[in-house]
Here is the input.
Amino acid sequence: GENVEQHPSTLSVQEGDSAVIKCTYSDSASNYFPWYKQELGKGPQLIIDIRSNVGEKKDQRIAVTLNKTAKHFSLHITETQPEDSAVYFCAAISPGGSQGNLIFGKGTKLSVKP
Amino acid sequence: DAGVTQSPTHLIKTRGQQVTLRCSPISGHKSVSWYQQVLGQGPQFIFQYYEKEERGRGNFPDRFSARQFPNYSSELNVNALLLGDSALYLCASSIGQSVEKLFFGSGTQLSVL
Here is the structure.
C-alpha cells in the first residue's frame, strides 16, 4: 500500500523567512496530493492541493511542487507570519483502495518566531 | 455556511465500554469519512460512507463500526473500548465519493481510562 514520509518533523523559522516541508510517497499510481494545516484543538484544514498532471500550484504565499519521477512533493510558505505556526500534514490518495482513503504523513510542527 | 460538525467534543470512557460519535457533513456533501488521530501522528483512515453505503474500510478491528443516515449524517461506534482507542476522532466530508477536497471537523477527543 501507499506510504507517505514527511520531513522535517519540526521546523522553526524567523518571521518573514521561507519554510519548506518535503514529502515522499511510495505508490507511483497516486494522483492527488493535498496539504493540511492543523491548529491546536482544531481539525485539519485543507490549504492547497495538487493533482499529478500538474507540476506546481500557487496560492498567495503558499505553493506546492510535485516531482512524479522522484515521487516527492513539497510545500513552500513564503514571508512566514506567526499565524502560520501550526502542524502541517501532507497526504496522498491511495488509488488501489477506497477513494476515501487519504494516507497522511506524520506531520511537521512549524514555529514562526516574531 | 456551517462546516463539518461533530459531537461530543470530548468524551471520557472506561475500558470495555461502548461509545458513539456523531457527525454532520457540510450541506450538500454526500460522503463522510472517519479518521483516527493519535497524538503526534497523522490521521489514519477508518471508514468512508457514500450514499449510505460503506465504500471503504481501513485497518481497524471489527469493534469499530459506522453508518450513514438518509440526511448524510453519520455515527461511528466503538465497542469494548481499549486504552489504545484514546485518540482524536475526526469526521470529514466531501461532495462525491472521491476525497479530493476533503473537509474535516474539529473532532471528538476520546479518552479511555
User: Anything to note?
Assistant: Chain B has a mean pLDDT of 95. DSSP finds no helices and eleven strands in chain B. The CA atoms of residues 36 and 55 of chain B lie 17 Å apart. The longest strand of chain B covers residues 87-94.
